[in-house]
Amino acid sequence: MTDLKIRVFKSDEEKPETTVTIPGHILKIASNLIPKKLAAILQDKGIDIDEIIRISENPDAQGTLIEVEEHKKNKKIVIILE
Question: What φ, ψ does residue 79 adopt, rounded to 5°?
Fold first, then answer.
């Protein structure tokens, strides 16, 4: 299993404002530990954490899965499997 990384960026910043890393071997359990604020943002954007967990079980699945840009809030969320 690969690690799941969720990175939140402020507008035009190269360095993330927040990074949440969940090791792949505990991803199913740790999905309950994702901060509520971040989980709500993901859900509002139609991002299904359970589907991401399913994809992460494939050892060939790596790279950026989802990138969401909130232009009015000047934020970007990137979900990556590494």
Answer: -110, 125
Look up residue 11 and give its amino acid: S
How many folded domains does the chain comprise? Answer: 1
Q: How high is the pLDDT of residue 16?
A: 95
The angle formed by the CA atoms of residues 1, 22 and 66, to the nearest 5 degrees, is: 80
What would the 3-class secondary structure string for 5-34 be? EEEEEECCCCCCCEEEEECHHHHHHHHHHC
- Can you give the residue range of the structural domain that contains 35? 4-81
Two structure tokens written together for 36: 């509520």
Indicate the pTM of the whole model: 0.75
